[in-house]
Amino acid sequence: MTDVDLEFARVRAVLDRPTLRLMSRPTSATVLAVFRTVFDRDVQYVPADRMHLQVEEHVARLQATGARVPASEQPDADEQDARPNGRALCREWVAAQWLVRSNSPDGDEQYSLTSHALEALSLVDALSSDRALISESRLAMIVDAVHRWAARAEPDPDVQIRRIDAQIAQLQAERDRLEQGDVDTVDDARMRDGYTNISDLIRQLPSDFKRVEEAVATMHRSIVEDFRQEVRPIGEILDDYLARTDNLMQATPEGRAFEGAFELLRDDALLLRLRDDIATILAHPFADSLGSGERRAFRNTVSILRQGIEDVLAQRRQLTATLRDQIVAHDVVRDRELDAVLRSVNRGLAAWMDRGSARDRLPLGLLPAAAEVGTLRERFYDPDAESVPPPIEEPDDDVFEDLDVEMLRRHGGPLLTELRAALRFAEADSSVDAFHGLPDEQRRPVELFGLAHLLTGHDDFESGAHVAEHRTVRPDGSPVAFTMPTAALDDEHRTPDTTNDEHAQEAR
Predict the structure, then answer these.
(1) Which helix (H) or strand (E) holds 46?
(2) Residues 6+ apart with CB under 8 A from 62
(3) Per-residue b/e over 62-81, b at no fewer than 16 CB within 10 Å?
């Protein structure tokens, strides 16, 4: 093949990539606008139902403005004003490798952008910004990177020492200049140029992490397929998994970027310095010209790194869990028996097709044949059900004390007869004094209910004008005091109405 043939094959392979197919279609503007609107910089996963609704709304709005929108399979697709089908469009974009449909940790379906879609969005953002392709900050970054890696690649220790001494002298001179008050201020234009250069690099991070995640997912599917087909021993598959994992992280640019970011996140001091540097850049006066979205995206640089690494690690954990489940739960003997049965069925079917014709009928029985069982037991032997229950223990008669009428009377209701006599013949001026004149066995707490019953209808008691403390004695001899209204005992009220008492006595 000539050079032009090789270049043609290489260019055609690049143009067939999903990234350029996304950007070369007539409806690319609509698709990319929907992706940018639905998947904000802070949103990486969108639930499936919400995604379908948002796609329908955004595509319908763009269609109403006259934009060219992608056609979807729907019953009324022939009509010009038909509403787009969000589910069908998302299904087409998944087939085109622009979207990924996966399951969330809760089991719900969700969508996320592929590395090809992220790369296309990053390219659109880069081309839409007004900046010079060759800038001071980009050239300085290239020179610094070359100088730093040249120092690491230098094998001669003397040369390395001279490089370090030169850096120390340069830093000391810079320190002396600052100590004398000579401070160089950077204008807004140069800070804006440096910020744009850094933003371009940060914008490429999600697509790089997504490529590593997709590579792990591809390796996941390949290894699971090898497990199911049993084309190789399990030990060989595991060795291949470990070798491919190491090769993925070391032999590809995305893998090396992932390893570098992973080492970065393990250095807390470096992360803290990165956060402080970002805050310092945003504190410069040029940052006032930035929009809220740009400031938020630049401030979330560390979050982008953490989220990308977490997605890759989650994909690796899923692959490791699948391998563990396959090793633990895989039954080779059972799979071989099932494979032997299916092969025998295929052989029998092939032999029958050779002997029979297209019109022949052959009754097929159930596989396996139905078992002929007369009666199935509904209950099986249970040792607990067949055992004899333990004997009932006879209670000890000595546990309970002998009860007499006097004991029952002490724990019974109020003694209305004694209370009525105390109120009728007491020489006290009030009901509380008459109550306190009773012996201890007649001043139980329950007697207060009887006293309130006998004083019902008395004006002083009903109005509660006078309240006093009534000292009672429990049957066990412990004192307790209660506060309740009292009534004056004059000649008119020393013989209370006994109509209610007779009903109460009958109730007792």
Answers:
(1) strand 46-47
(2) 30, 33, 34, 69
(3) bbeeeeebbebeeeeeeeee
Nearest residue to 413 (alpha-carbon basis) of 469, 494, 475: 475
Q: Are 113 and 99 in contact (CB under 8 A)?
A: yes
pLDDT in tens, 237-291: 777 767 766 666 665 666 666 676 677 667 778 778 888 888 888 888 888 888 8
Sign of the four-CA dihedral 211, 212, 215, 216: negative
Which residue's structure tokens are 């350029």?
20
**CA–CA gap between residue 437 and residue 241 (Å, rounded):** 98
Bridge partner list, 102: 110
Q: Encoding tokens for residue 477? A: 């001899």
Helix (H, G, I), strand (E, B) or coil at 291: coil
* C-alpha of 9 from chain center: 47
Name the residue with tokens 């412990």.
478
Residue 6, C-beta contacts closer than 8 angstroms, at least 6 positions apart = none
Pure H helices in 376-496 = 383-386, 405-410, 416-425, 431-436, 447-454, 459-463
Query: CB of 220 within 8 A of CB of 318?
Result: yes
Residue matched to tokens 């001043």? 443
Residue that is written with structure tokens 């610094």 in the block: 144
Nearest to 205 by CA among 258, 263, 279, 142: 258
Angle of helix 115-128 versus helix 188-203 axis, rounded to 10: 160
> What tokens does 339 get?
């494979």
Residue partners of 473: CB distance under 8 A and separation at least 6: 440, 441, 443, 444, 479, 480
Give the strand pairing for 46-47 and 99-103: unpaired
What distance in Å separates the CA atoms of residue 281 and residue 288, rounded to the nearest whole number? 11
**For residue 299, what is the enclosing H or E element?**
helix 292-299
Q: Which pair of tokens denotes residue 42?
A: 């802070």
Indicate whether this model's pTM tops 0.85: no
Per-residue model confidence as pLDDT tens digits over 280-330: 888 888 888 888 877 887 888 777 777 777 777 777 777 777 777 766 766
CB–CB of 438/470 below 8 Å? Answer: no
